[in-house]
Specification:
The protein has about 150 residues and is α+β, with helices and mostly antiparallel strands. It is built from six helices and four strands.
């Protein structure tokens, strides 16, 4: 069965409605960070535009949407087999694989600049924000030691 191709203008209008900042999951994590008294900044101007940075420790935090960043593929064992995910048109396969590749490049770029990069899946943040905070706090402790050692 052949599906009708959508007008690119319609696709563009739909995509423009999707929030990239201030999403529910981002607000949930921001609330958890505040509750844990972790100082952070939002949308700091770095490569990849992290959702948060931990103030003073060079820790970049990303809240990755399950669909947009490929977690749904990872769960199903399709990291490198996007074409088998036949519910998606070639447009979406390309869009998501491009996002996944960009995430890897951003991670590498930030690490080369001395940043610790943390990426959390939307579903994990929703399921257990306290667990995410514990991971962030553990990274802060470890990175705080490393960061202060390099500055001495």
């Amino acid at each position: 069965m052949r599906t009708k191709k959508r007008d690119p203008e319609v696709t563009s209008r739909i995509m423009s409605q999707i929030k990239s900042k201030g999403t529910k999951v981002e607000l949930l994590l921001a609330s958890a960070l505040r509750k844990a008294k972790i100082k952070f900044r939002r949308h700091y101007p770095l490569p990849g535009k992290p959702d948060f940075i931990v103030f003073g420790l060079k820790i970049a935090i990303f809240c990755d949407g399950d669909f947009w960043h490929g977690n749904n593929w990872r769960i199903r064992g399709m990291d490198n087999q996007a074409e088998d995910f036949n519910k998606l048109t070639p447009f979406w396969v390309k869009k998501i694989t491009t996002n996944m590749a960009r995430d890897k490049r951003v991670n590498l770029t930030l690490r080369k600049k001395g940043w610790k990069v943390l990426r959390f899946w939307e579903s994990d943040i929703k399921r257990d924000p306290k667990k995410i905070i514990k991971k962030i706090e553990a990274t802060m402790r470890a990175h705080s030691f490393q960061y202060s050692s390099h500055r001495s």
